[in-house]
């Protein structure tokens, strides 16, 4: 022990009065022989004096600025080697060392490295040039150091030539983890990547985003600065300022760090591989090198506080670089961590959830304004750089929303007030249909019922009205493929059948009361009730069948509205839909023309006038429907069509049957055969007086009938012939209620309509 104290004293005196070296031996700081030599590089002096010679000479100058902390690290290396030599760890093998003072200068370190690489047991200290150094035996088998990353990188590049193991004790530059460029470098401290990551994590944990950076002007400082800026930006932390200080400033207040050296050294050929796999402990923790040659140690988080004018350093936590977490041992340090959040270091007030940051004209992203998220966007964290978009197909969000809400699925539901009203109207229409059917059945043999075409025709029309009212129920409720296909088809076919029957009634009335012989002959040929009804309805059936085969209506999920999803029936083909409605309109127009021609018929037969009104109501309803249907959007589109169906159906039902029901119930005195005949003869007398019949027409209808001079006998003959002509016209068309009218028209027999 006394020998060690004397050695340290001499070593300090030599280093303190360091002179420019004259020989390689003068350049060595400390050396000891052995079977295996371990090299050491330590920045025992702070800097090297610049040369005053001009021009400058390529020589190592005097070093100044003694660093006691680094000197203690040098003694720690010597002490560790001596302990190994004095133990049984390496039986028969003595470790030696060769330690150099780099003077915190790359050129000095490079000079020492060249001596490390010189050939072993060679009288001349030279480095041989070889293409393959596998069998080359350098004088030093491994190197400890150096301290600064800038020097270490330069030294490591030279040692890579022979893959000589190099163990760094202070070099933390992230680039040294690159095993392609530094394959033989190992270190006992973590990479700056983890240190910077821990610093960024601590800043984020404290809620700061407006900070300044102070670094040194060397490879270590510049690399650390660049890495920290990247980490800061990733955590949305802004750099308020960056200050770069000159490198290699001495700070005697920094706690002395002494690294443990190697515990095992084996055969030199396997030295690098063994070093990479070595594991050692400090009594509590286990340490080893990772794939990048970095030791799995962490950091101590310390707090500098000034108390009563004195600066104290308190350990707050440990940073676990593998799990990226801070380990806090006691409650007091937890409180210290919480107090960090009370320190305000922000350029702008944080944006709450539901808002996003809007960068101002400042160059810093941490200086911003808060802006509310627009509709269908949200943010669920503070200080989000932008709002997130909701899935517009299934979700929505109001302004300044912190989450997305599911869209409500809507359709014309059964419990909707409008749907209930429409169903009540449809049900009321069905009741009217049943009541009319009962009234007509109970009054089957009355002239009013017979003049309506008989009970079978009335039943067919009433059935069509029933189906039309019933079809409205398929427009309500959740759309299904079946209901979408059924509703338009059922309405189209049943309404077409209804219009076809009314068309035949209009044609029959026109035929009964038209006295133009040419037109009457044409109408007789045209009047084929069953065939025409079958053809008119069959065409609509074909249209609907082709529609269902090639472009059937289907259920569509409409997501174009901002807050709701509309379930609706997509008609499949607008052309087919328009063709179906257009065909009904054509039949209704023909029916309207026929009914309009017979609008001046006898009062009891004036069904044509009411048919005309019914068709007008139909046209007004559907002409109004087209623009409303085209511009309506949402769940009430089916309600528009229901309303139009109800209006047109009610219009035709009321105009066709209600006047007759009124006569049957309230005007029973005119619902008799005699009343009908009286009305017919009254209408005939009025009509004959206004009809100008040509001689040729009279000859063809009643033989050789001529007009004589207006004498009393001639007038009577002409008047009688005209009445006979009308009676013959009625007899040819109206065969339903034959009665005898000999009292009124002697020797003539006509049929009641």
Give a short synopsis of this structure.
By secondary structure, this protein is α/β, with parallel strands linked by helices. It has a six-stranded mixed beta sheet, with helices on both faces. Helix 4 runs parallel beside helix 5 (149-159), helix 10 runs parallel beside helix 18 (637-666) and helix 15 runs antiparallel to helix 16 (574-597).
- Estimate percent helicity: 40-55%
- Taken from the alpha-carbon principal axes, the silhouette is rod-shaped
Average predicted confidence as pLDDT: 77
What would you call the structural class?
A: alpha/beta
Write up this protein:
Helix 16 packs antiparallel against helix 17 (607-631). By secondary structure, the chain is an alpha/beta fold. The chain is rod-shaped. The chain is built from 21 helices and 26 strands. Helix 5 (149-159) links the parallel strand 6 (142-144) and strand 7 (166-168).
